[in-house]
Write a structure and sequence with these properties.
By secondary structure, the protein is of the alpha/beta class. The chain folds into 2 domains: 3-123, 3-Layer(aba) Sandwich (Rossmann fold); 127-223, Arc Repressor Mutant, subunit A, CATH 1.10.10. Helix content is 45%, strand content 24%. It is built from 9 helices and 12 strands. The chain has helices at 11-23, 34-44, 60-71, 85-94, 106-123, 153-163, 172-180, 188-201, 204-207, and strands spanning 3-7, 27-31, 48-52, 76-80, 98-101, 127-130, 133-136, 141-144, 147-149, 170-171, 209-214, 218-223. The radius of gyration is 18 Å and the shape is globular. It starts with a strand and ends with a strand.
Length: 225
């Protein structure tokens, strides 16, 4: 049974979200603000956090920053009453995995939670299959349509990052930091070049996935149904 930590200073929202999750068979823990959530992380050991943005003491953005720093790839779903793009950009830059604007439809919340938990299981794997392509992180081998494809290490790391979080939007800055490092001295054009090379190596019609440009944010990898 997966445990979800619901972090919101609004008692009504905590009760609503908690009830929805419990009805789906999840275990639920609650925190009233970001600082309270950090104090409970080790004892509760959640599999996913649902975090409100506007909270006293430590808001959702700062909490997200701390969670990414100390708890790695733990899935984070942000709840907020703000719907403008700048808030979403900031959330993704700090490491949130998904974003849901209040008021929300209960079925959508549950679908997003389940999708994030599935994605996390994929991210912790060492071998991924996306469409007709298999990516092996232990040997750094990529197989497309039964044939091994030799690709440069940076392209492999970029492909792995995108493929390990299917459907997740990665900001340009986060991709550069994860693949090239914080001390990267190039420019964003380097990322664009590598994305285009991956698109050329793995054409959508042959490999069954595409790398989509999300204007104003970054990129995400989508498997075609």
């Amino acid at each position: 049974m997966s445990k979800i930590l619901v972090v919101d200073d609004d008692e009504y929202i905590r009760e609503l979200v908690g009830t929805l999750l419990k009805n789906e068979g999840f275990a639920v823990a609650e925190s009233v603000n970001g600082r309270d959530a950090l104090n409970k992380m080790d004892s509760e050991n959640p599999d996913l956090c649902i975090v409100d943005v506007m909270m006293p003491q430590l808001d959702g953005f700062e909490l997200c920053k701390y969670l990414r720093q100390y708890y790695g790839e733990l899935p984070i779903l942000m709840l907020t009453a703000k719907s403008d793009i700048s808030q979403k950009v900031r959330g993704f830059e700090l490491g949130t995995d998904d974003y849901l604007t209040k008021p929300f439809e209960p079925p959508e919340l549950i679908l997003r939670v389940k999708a994030l938990l599935r994605r996390y299981k994929v991210e912790t794997a060492q071998t991924l299959t996306v469409g007709a392509v298999t990516i092996d992180r232990t040997s750094y081998a990529v197989t497309a349509g039964g044939e091994q494809a030799d690709i440069p290490m940076k392209e492999f790391e970029l492909l792995w990052k995108l493929a390990s979080a299917l459907g997740k939007t990665h900001t340009r800055d986060s991709l550069i930091e994860n693949v090239w490092g914080y001390d990267f001295e190039g420019n964003e054009r380097t990322l664009d070049v590598h994305i285009n090379r991956l698109r050329e190596r793995f054409p959508t019609e042959k490999c069954g996935f595409k790398i989509t440009t999300i204007r104003g944010l970054g990129y995400r990898l989508e498997v075609l149904s």
